[in-house]
Design brief:
With 421 residues, this protein is α/β, with parallel strands linked by helices. The chain has 13 helices and 12 strands. It has a 7-stranded mixed beta sheet, sandwiched between helices. Bound molecules: pyridoxal-5'-phosphate. Pyridoxal-5'-phosphate binds next to helix 4 and helix 5.
């Protein structure tokens, strides 16, 4: 099936149950087992069915199967938020004494997770410059467990050299994880470019209307070829004492998401609510057409800002003179670049004025809503970063981030014009 069809049909058998056209919401915590033996079989992975909603849920399962196919992977696990997806993916492979290599351009919450919270768990983070990945290889050692980057970074709107990152990772047998939230699974599929694991905050474009917090982890086909007998991932090759001696690479099932489900989400409990999964199923149905409109609108707004005398710099890879233009043309569907753009006003005072004067844009710390959003990263989403971290991440006090919605682009441009004054 092609992606547009997958988004509407994959993972749901409408001939089952009452044949409801809409995927049912299984708003339940637990499930009645038909016998004690069947319950034991489920726990022993001899049979597959819902056990408890912290582990699996039929509504969530439709979303997982549909999203995995849409992203070009073989399996997925949904989580309660994007941060839960990122945290779960990292601790699925890294433990105290290990290190991870992260891009210098990441969402602020991911930066604090990797550089502060994980440090307290004994996992250290080394930072590489993802634009060209020139210093990546020298950072890899035998304790390196993964390389994490965003396909379109928030809020710098920068695109990494994905082929080079993947090529270096493959040479050293290190796992790659790509946060594909901003580009969206409609416009870019990292697995097609050799990435091992894709994570999303589905709270953004996937739900599409800012109605549900969620995250998802998708793994590529044949990840066993990287994990099996790889000393970096010894715990995938040894019996898991917490799961009656299960060896993840020997189950015949996609090992990465299986371990996240059975060992990580089982213990941390960061599972999605069935209702949120249902909202995400609705969102995914229209993701493709929404992303086209978000992208076209954003390009028009970026072109307008580019000509404004009070704007110093506009970052949007859809602009022909943007550093990311060639990469966007190569990687993204029809060169469409999603709805996020940032611009640097002439000074902090102008940035503050724009923030407080727009009428259609709302001051909100979210992205990917159908309604347009304006954010001042330095004082909000990235406030916890030190001045040095802000500078390293390319976030100046005059930087404004816009998440362009689905309104008429002419209205958005008029609103920004009056706000800039
Ligand atoms: N990754 C990116 C690129 C994000 O922009 C965000 C949130 O803004 C997250 C992850 C975290 O997602 P969530 O808010 O769903 O936890």
């Amino acid at each position: 099936m092609k992606k547009d069809t997958i988004a509407l049909h994959e993972g749901y058998d409408k001939t089952q149950g009452f044949g409801t056209m809409s995927v049912p919401i299984y708003q339940t915590t637990a499930y009645v087992f038909k016998s004690g033996e069947y319950a034991a079989d489920l726990f022993a992975l001899k049979d597959f069915g819902p056990i408890y909603t912290r582990l699996n849920n039929p509504t969530t399962e439709v979303f997982e199967k549909r999203f995995a196919a849409y992203e070009g992977g073989v399996a997925a696990i949904a989580t309660s938020s994007g941060m839960a997806a990122i945290f779960s993916s990292i601790i699925n492979v890294a433990e105290a004494g290990d290190n991870i290599i992260i891009s210098d351009k990441l969402y602020g919450g991911t930066v604090t997770l990797c550089t502060h919270t994980l440090k307290r768990f004994g996992i250290s983070a080394k930072v590489f410059s993802s634009d060209e990945a020139d210093n990546l290889e020298e950072l890899i050692d035998e304790k390196t467990k993964l390389i994490l980057f965003e396909s379109l970074s928030n809020p710098q709107i920068s695109i990494p050299n994905i082929e080079k990152i993947v090529q270096i990772a493959k040479k050293h047998n290190v796992l790659t994880i790509c946060d594909n939230t901003v580009a969206s699974a409609a416009l870019f599929n990292p697995i097609k470019w050799g990435v091992d694991v894709v994570v999303h905050s589905t709270s953004k474009y996937t739900t599409g209307q800012g109605t549900a917090l969620g995250g998802i982890i998708v793994e590529r086909e044949n990840l066993n070829e990287l994990l099996t007998d790889n000393p970096r991932y010894y715990h995938f090759n040894e019996p898991d004492e917490s799961y009656h001696g299960l060896i993840y690479t020997k189950t015949g099932l996609p090992p990465f998401t299986l371990r996240v489900r059975l060992a990580i989400i089982r213990d941390t409990g960061a599972a999605p609510s069935p209702f949120n999964s249902w909202l995400l199923v609705q969102g995914l149905e229209t993701l493709g057409i929404r992303m086209e409109k978000h992208s076209k609108n954003a390009l028009k707004v970026a072109q307008f800002l580019k000509t404004h005398p009070k704007v110093k710099k506009v970052s949007y890879p859809g602009l022909e003179d943007d550093e990311g233009y060639n990469k966007a043309q190569k990687y993204f569907k029809d060169g469409l670049c999603s709805g996020l753009l940032s611009f640097e006003a002439e000074d902090y005072e102008t940035a503050k004025k724009v923030l407080n004067s727009t009428k259609i844009f709302s001051i909100v710390v979210n992205i990917g809503d159908s309604k347009s959003i304006i954010t001042h990263p330095a004082s909000t989403t990235h406030q916890q970063l030190s001045p040095k971290e802000l500078e390293d991440a390319g976030i100046s006090p005059a930087l404004i981030r816009l998440s362009i919605g689905l309104e008429d682009s002419e209205d958005l441009i008029k609103d920004l014009e009056q706000a800039l004054g």
